[in-house]
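Dear U.,

For the methods section draft, I wanted the exact inputs and outputs in one place so we can describe them consistently. I've listed the two proteins in the order they'll appear in the manuscript figures. Please don't edit the token lines directly; just add comments below if something needs changing.

First protein:
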Amino acid sequence: MASEPAVPVAHASAFAQASADKSEDKPADKPPPPPTPARDPNPDRTFLDGPHSRMRELQLLWRAVRDFVRGFRTLHFVGPCVTIFGSARFGEKHRFYPLAREVGRRVSLLGFTVMTGGGPGLMEAANRGARDAGGRSVGCNIELPLEQAPNPHLDYFVTCHYFFVRKVLLFKYSFAFVGLPGGLGTLDELCEALTLIQTGKIQNYPVVLIGTEYWKPFISLLREMVDEGAVAAADLDLLKVTDDLDEAMKHIESHTIGSFGLRRGRKPKWWLGET
């Protein structure tokens, strides 16, 4: 068998040197591309963070429409509601929890469905109070980065992606609003109710604040705004501030039942998949 021809030593050395030079001339590896940012888990922030592609805008719009449709179908037959605002942070051992539970019970005894944001704390207490009285209890929950689960005292609830959808649902079905002690979210919803009434976007439904001492700084701020001319003095009449639950319930009853022609809701139609 013929052997392979030998490579001359000089040629072999030149070949090795050329290979080394070629290796040295090889460009350095490019840095890896930056990681693709993960989709923001907060859908409200995604909705409000500026322009998107047309397809992405359409997807965001569709999600909002889907929230509205789901909310309308869930709450259409719950009857006239009173929406109760209050802190999610005040648990069962907090001094305001029994108060919120009693408010929910009394509102239910007036014949109203108790509606809350559907979460824990004073919202849970109000829904629980409605259940104590054998009344209807509903909630409009919200998806948060730290999940807020619906409380266990709800007959019906809807979970929204967007805060603005949740707000529409909280106001759409209500004939009165009760503000229990709370934080920024409670203030936001309370001021929204007052603004809608003040501007005539909804009728002059009663707004009751429970807890005169707690709400004193807020009322003082409103009076300073009146002094500066930023708020009309008559706007203070939109609020009823009291610690007396009998007085609060009488105010709600006298400014709702009979004033707005309240009647029972329509019966659901089984052939539309309504319950």
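Second protein (the one for the lower panel):
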Amino acid sequence: MPSRSRQNWQVIASCLAVLGIMCGIVAYSPTLYRMFCAATGYGGTTQRVAADAAAVSAQTVTVAFDASVAPGLDWRFAPVERTVAVHLGEQKLVYFTAENLGSTPAVAHATFNVTPQSSGIYFNKIQCFCFNEERLDAHQKVQMPVVFYVDPAFGKDPEMHGVTVITLGYTFFRSANPQNAKDLARFLVDAPPDAAHGKALFAERCSACHALDANKLGPALGGVVGRRVGSAAGYNYSPAVKNADFVWSADKLDRWLADPRAFIPGARMPVRVLDAPSRKDLIAYLERESGKAEAKPAIAGAASSEQAR
């Protein structure tokens, strides 16, 4: 009898385990589906990347843009340009305009896809308003940047032969989770720089190559504002950067981030930050951290004076 009872409990435990797994799959199926779509490009899902490291190809493709608003959201939403021609691997900046026609603030979320759907795995978005819940004040109008590139592997895929146009489409829906929305006012021309957003951008788009307090693939950036170019201790700079002669300021950082190789011909850095609001926020963060870096020696010196007394 004890052995039969033990067997019964084992059967019950196995059934409960299977039931738990099935419940977990059901509960997380939307997340798992999104992960599957992002990994495979299924259903025209685009890829999300932090930067463009692809080599630019001579082959071009036309990217068209489509925009719509779901019922229940009183917004006007449209691309600034209907089509652009891009080289495969070329990072491209385009804009969409959004205007709240209503008399109260509204929060919305954009869904997106590309057609033909099989091209989704090659369409890489570096920056997009579709990653967040977005808030727009009453009668406010903004231009929102999208930064993307089409992977050069697109041109080597036999299934893509004959595809000359990729359409990127967005639809804005009224948000079901408005409490954690970001403010689209950050894209206004006169919006003040946001160092907190710059910190998030640094973690997302810069931290693979840079840290504040250590050299990685790129030099340490703590204290970079006010520092002579090419002078981070222990970092092996390119000859072009090493021979440059200026001090990093907000203006020079802006030019560098917009196009490093145009600003200093011969520089190795391939990454560009095309949209001005992101550059402004990143620079605000680096300025804030540079101020902290300058304050540390003074604090250390004060501590030494105390000890000397």
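Candidate sentences for the figure legend, describing the second protein: The chain has three domains: 1-40, 47-182, 195-308. Residues 2-40 form the longest helix (39 residues).

Thanks,
Y.
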